[in-house]
């Protein structure tokens, strides 16, 4: 089916953006779901973490929503807002297909040396602990705009990542099992010595939930300078 007008829903860690994309690729912002035109033929939802299950775009139904909910803890700043947006959009536009597209999908081409952590094999095989990578939709778009054999893409926003692209395929990236790994971000710590975090837990300085809050919301630029604005 050829969709002439697609409403794109981008639920990020710090914003919710709606855009109407025409058949010729032009896009314009939409203020709210209520303001979306009645002739929308499909709704596309950006979802950050697809895990091992979701590597291609998928039409959203109840089973897909449950699968996304099961991944929420792996990207709590992203997947939960995305799920909320999906539920709202399906209620507002129940007669058109809703499709999820995944940031992790572009990084499915990561070679084993980039996707594998130096951890016991059972962690990978039984628990699925590996580098997934994120910002894939953004990186893929950038790579299409600059079609060169070797490219480094820096995504800078509320979350930040750096990806090496070779011949249009992701070959290495800074984010890992979750969007918390990598370079410091607006409020996220990025990579930290795991021993320091274990120390905080073992000494009772922080609970696991309090540590999660600190790493996700109180670190990065906020932790270093008191503001999440890189201009200050």
Written overview of the protein:
The mean pLDDT is 93. This protein has a six-stranded mixed beta sheet with strand order 3-2-1-4-6-5, covered by helices on one side. Strands 7-8-9 form a three-stranded antiparallel beta sheet, with helices on one face. Helix content is 30%, strand content 22%. It folds into two domains: 5-102, Nucleotidyltransferase, domain 5 (2-Layer Sandwich), CATH 3.30.420.40; 110-225, ATPase, nucleotide binding domain (Nucleotidyltransferase, domain 5, 2-Layer Sandwich), CATH 3.30.420.40. The chain has 232 residues and is of the alpha+beta class. It is built from eight helices and nine strands.
């Amino acid at each position: 089916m050829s969709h002439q007008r697609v409403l794109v829903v981008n639920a990020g860690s710090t914003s919710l953006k709606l855009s109407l994309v025409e058949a010729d690729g032009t896009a314009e912002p939409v203020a709210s779901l209520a303001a979306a035109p009645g002739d929308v033929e499909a709704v596309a939802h950006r979802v950050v973490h697809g895990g091992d299950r979701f590597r291609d775009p998928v039409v959203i139904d109840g089973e897909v929503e449950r699968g996304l909910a099961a991944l929420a803890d792996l990207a709590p700043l992203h997947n939960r807002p995305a799920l909320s947006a999906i539920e709202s959009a399906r209620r507002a536009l129940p007669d058109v297909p809703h499709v999820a597209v995944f940031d992790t999908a572009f990084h499915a081409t990561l070679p084993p040396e980039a996707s594998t952590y130096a951890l016991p094999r059972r962690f990978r095989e039984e628990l699925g602990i590996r580098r997934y990578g994120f910002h894939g939709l953004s990186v893929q778009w950038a790579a299409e705009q600059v079609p060169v054999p070797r490219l480094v893409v820096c995504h800078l926003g509320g979350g930040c990542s750096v990806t090496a692209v070779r011949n249009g395929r992701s070959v290495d990236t800074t984010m890992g099992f979750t969007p918390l790994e990598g370079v410091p971000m607006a409020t996220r710590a990025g990579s930290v010595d795991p021993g320091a975090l274990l120390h905080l837990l073992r000494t009772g300085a922080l609970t696991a939930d309090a540590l999660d809050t600190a790493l996700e919301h109180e670190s990065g630029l906020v932790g270093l300078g008191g503001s999440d604005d890189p201009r200050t």
